[in-house]
Design a protein that fits this description.
This protein is α+β, with helices and mostly antiparallel strands and 67 residues long. It contains 1 helix and 4 strands, in the order E-E-E-H-E. Strands 1-2-3-4 form a 4-stranded antiparallel beta sheet, with helices on one face. The model has no long low-confidence stretch (mean pLDDT 92).
């Protein structure tokens, strides 16, 4: 892995992570599974090989106030 992404933040569920990056133009999120051995390496792996993640699409799912 040559390219280093500017990782702003990450959130983990065991070895599954959501990584937020800034590519110089916009912020993007990726989700994927990594080894769990090194946080920085895992963040870069998910930024490179992870699937795009769109937080706005999950707002309704996580709306805890809905009845």
């Amino acid at each position: 892995m040559e390219k280093k992404y500017n990782v702003i933040d990450s959130f983990w569920f065991g070895t599954i992570g959501i990584v937020k990056i800034d590519n110089g133009f916009e912020e993007k999120w990726y989700i994927g599974e990594a080894s769990g051995l090194n946080k920085e390496d895992d963040e870069q792996y998910i930024a490179t090989f992870g699937k795009p993640f769109y937080p706005k699409t999950m707002e309704q799912f996580f709306n805890l106030d809905k009845k």
